[in-house]
Amino acid sequence: xxxxxxxxxxxxxxxxxxxxxxxxxxxxxxxxxxxxxxxxxxxxxxxxxxxxxxxxxxxxxxxxxxxxxxxxxxxxxxxxxxxxxxxxxxxxxxxxxxxxxxxxxxxxxxxxxxxxxxxxxxxxxxxxxxxxxxxxxxxxxxxxxxxxxxxxxxxxxxxxxxxxxxxxxxxxxxxxxxxxxxxxxxxxxxxxxxxxxxxxxxxxxxxxxxxxxxxxxxxxxxxxxxxxxxxxxxxxxxxxxxxxxxxxxxxxxxxxxxxxxxxxxxxxxxxxxxxxxxxxxxxxxxxxxxxxxxxxxxxxxxxx
Length: 304
Fold this sequence. Notes:
Elements: H1 2-18, H2 27-38, H3 42-55, H4 60-72, H5 76-88, H6 93-109, H7 113-129, H8 133-149, H9 153-164, H10 170-186, H11 190-207, H12 210-226, H13 230-247, H14 250-266, H15 270-287, H16 290-303
Helix pairs in contact: 1-6, 2-3, 2-4, 3-4, 4-5, 4-6, 5-6, 6-7, 6-8, 7-8, 8-9, 9-10, 10-11, 10-12, 11-12, 12-13, 12-14, 13-14, 14-15, 14-16, 15-16
């Protein structure tokens, strides 16, 4: 589900730029804060946010950016204080939904699942009252995410299914199909998982970029692996391998080797799995990819 989490973060960033308060003289510092957050430099972002708040201590955008920066640093109490202050300054429904979305995201990351559900449902009610189908769908999906993280998988399915009905295009349909597929897979309902992931793959092939297509194929492979359909899993994963080589993407090539190694592990082929994992690790070290490399190291450790 890692790619879904990245998509959710992207949604939040898009929301924050849809409706902006009057930034006034603090505008340069706020823009610099947002840029630093997008680049993952939370410490720098906080410096700019504090400078903006010295110019105007009730600037909503500065408080939002400050909250996001604290969230990146996993300083969730500070994040929630800033974000809740920004929410109180919100003047329109869309501003309230943006702030509530960030608050819910911070609560979820702090594992405050009941609180996150309350927040997202408040945002959902605002979207429904305003007949804003886009925000309604996104809030339903975010509620589903919290339910997944709190191991309420059947309830998560209901939320994702409701969100799926509101999808307006193939990008949104692909997103919801993938959420449904992953949740069905976690429940061991392999037929439903496969059905939904096939739909996700087909949608991504129509409208998705390389990253979304590559991820969809790997998820298809993972779901087939969980269903013990290893030949189909290998074929799905090899589509990402082929795509990565055509597009010159070392990251997706490494990730495809990692997923193929998981197929070999499920088949009891430890030696073949180790070779694939070491090939993937070599690529990760070459490109400085730490997240995937950590997963590979764990898989190698489990082989011993």
